[in-house]
Amino acid sequence: MNQKILIVDDEDHLRMLIEQTLEELEDEGVELLTATNGEEALELIIEEHPNLVFLDVMMPKMNGIEVCRKVKQELKINDVFIIILTAKGQELDKQKGKDVEADVYMTKPFDPDELLDKAREVLQL
Predict the structure, then answer these.
(1) How far, rounded to the nearest angstrom, does the alpha carbon of residue 76 sit from its chain's CA centroid?
(2) Domain segments of the chain: what residues?
(3) Long-range contacts from 31-35, C-beta under 8 angstroms, 24+ separation
């Protein structure tokens, strides 16, 4: 089964940085998908059913917290591992991530090696 990672960020340079960080996983059969806003992310999650989603919070059309809430609580898609990846690192922000059942909450700036290690762990590579 082909595994998929969805990278969601409205900032081109960050989306490309995450994509470059994870591109070596493509050699192991992982498909990388990208989205630039929350609505697009939600559509891709429903259509493509990625195994792992790196999800920014502050985005146009629908923020990452709302996307996570819809996926986990409304649609009950619980086999998608969602990592909130955001500049918002306050305890209140982290609690919002927990409230919508995000699997992991990581703050920017992030360590690319940590991102790759987490992806390998989640996908069991």
Answers:
(1) 17
(2) 3-120
(3) 31/2, 31/3, 31/4, 31/5, 32/4, 32/5, 32/7, 33/4, 33/5, 33/6, 33/7, 34/6, 34/7, 34/8, 35/6, 35/7, 35/8
pLDDT of res. 57 = 93
pTM of the model: 0.94
Paired sense of beta strands 104-107 and 81-86, if any: parallel
What is the spatial distance between Cα 55 and Cα 69, in angstroms, rounded to a whole number? 12
The whole-number pLDDT of residue 62 equals: 95
In this prediction, residue 1 has a pLDDT band, given cuts at 50, 70 and 90, of low
**Looking at domain 3-120, which CATH architecture does it have?**
3-Layer(aba) Sandwich (3.40)
Report the alpha-carbon distance of residue 63 to residue 17 in Å, rounded. Answer: 20
- Kindly report the backbone phi and psi dihedral angles of residue 32, in degrees, each rounded to the nearest multiple of 5, phi listed first: -100, 125
Whether 73 shows a pLDDT value over 90: the answer reads: yes
